[in-house]
Design brief:
The structure is a single chain. The chain is an alpha/beta fold. The protein folds into two domains: 205 residues, Spore Coat Polysaccharide Biosynthesis Protein SpsA, Chain A (Alpha-Beta Complex); 90 residues, no CATH class. The protein has twelve helices and nine strands. Helix 10 packs antiparallel against helix 11. The longest helix is centred in the C-terminal third of the chain and has 20 residues. The relative contact order is 0.11.
């Protein structure tokens, strides 16, 4: 096996109390040819002081601040870290999770001995300490119909699990969508799998993700998270560079239509209006009559809390 450089990219924000454990797990890697690029999204705690200590202790660590001309958020930090990276392989990671000590060794070896562009490992969820394991994040990380099953979440893996060939990632117009605050990894992975739907499977847990109240995955901002789930699926559905088959198209259509109607019936003014303009109004499979029923139903619900008869007529014209 060659000894290629691996770039580990970690966005961070006010995680001085947690990121030390993450960085220690990087230090503990049995594969030692790595650089770890930490990009700060504007922390106001002791992150800068902590990272200065790690950078002084080991020159393989780098600490950077998200440029002011990039939008706030982990996605911009991930993309900026990628631009700074010099490795032949890339592993994005999160600032509250932990790497198994053999993660890089196992996945680099797997890719060096194959023609695949990335490998995916299993992930365990833990609370408080890695000894307190809750269970697998997902039972399945591979299937016979990878794109559709990942899109519908029958199989699942997060940002931390894959190790990527950088040359492959450089073929994309963009990586993480900086306009998404949730489902960004789902949207990115779906774009990848839409035309590269095979990879090295490591059915061994090499990532430990922390379950806690302040985690993006587990926090209570349900309304905002669900809106970005809608937005991510709308972006995928409208992406003219992806050739969606009938099954995938119909799944996304049903998801978007169902959620638009739910927003209307729940009297969510902002989400109702945004989903109407971003989706219903421009949907080619809605004729003028259907769009009229959608607009009347939307207005009726928002003004009188009634309008089911109109929403019921909002259907796809096949």
């Amino acid at each position: 096996m060659n000894n290629p450089l691996v770039s580990i990219i970690i966005p961070t924000y006010n995680r001085a109390h947690l990121i030390g454990e993450t960085l220690d797990s990087v230090l503990a890697q049995t594969y030692t040819n790595w650089e770890c690029i930490v990009v700060d999204d504007g922390s106001t705690d002791g992150t800068e002081k902590l990272l200065a200590a790690y950078c002084e202790k080991d020159s393989r660590f780098q600490y950077h601040h998200r440029p002011n001309n990039r939008p706030k958020g982990a996605n911009a930090c991930r993309n900026y870290g990628f631009e700074l990276s010099k490795g032949e392989y890339v592993n994005w990671f999160d600032d509250d999770d932990v790497m198994h000590k053999n993660k890089l060794f196992i996945q680099v070896k797997a890719l060096e001995n194959s023609d695949y562009n990335f490998s995916v490992c299993q992930t365990l969820v833990f609370e408080n300490t890695v000894e307190n394991i809750v269970g697998l994040r997902s039972e399945n990380i591979y299937s016979e119909d990878i794109f559709f099953d990942y899109l519908t979440q029958k199989i699942s893996w997060l940002t931390q699990a894959p190790l990527w060939k950088k040359s492959f990632l450089q073929t994309f117009d963009y990586l993480f969508d900086e306009g998404l605050q949730a489902a960004q990894e789902w949207e990115f992975h779906c774009r990848v799998l839409s035309y590269c739907n095979d990879y090295v499977v490591i059915n061994e847990p090499l990532v430990y993700i922390r379950q806690h109240q302040n985690s993006v995955t587990y926090n209570g901002d349900e309304k905002n998270r669900m809106w970005h789930y809608f937005l991510a699926r709308n972006k995928l559905y409208k992406n003219d560079k992806i050739n969606l088959n009938v099954e995938v198209s119909e799944f996304l259509q049903n998801y978007l239509l169902k959620n638009f109607k739910n927003y209307v019936r729940s009297y969510c003014l902002k989400e109702t209006l945004k989903s109407f303009y971003l989706y219903v109004l421009v949907e080619k499979k809605f004729n003028i009559k259907v769009k009229f029923y959608a607009s009347i139903g939307m207005i009726s619900y928002l003004m009188t809390h009634k309008g089911h008869v109109f929403l019921k007529k909002v259907k796809y014209t096949r």
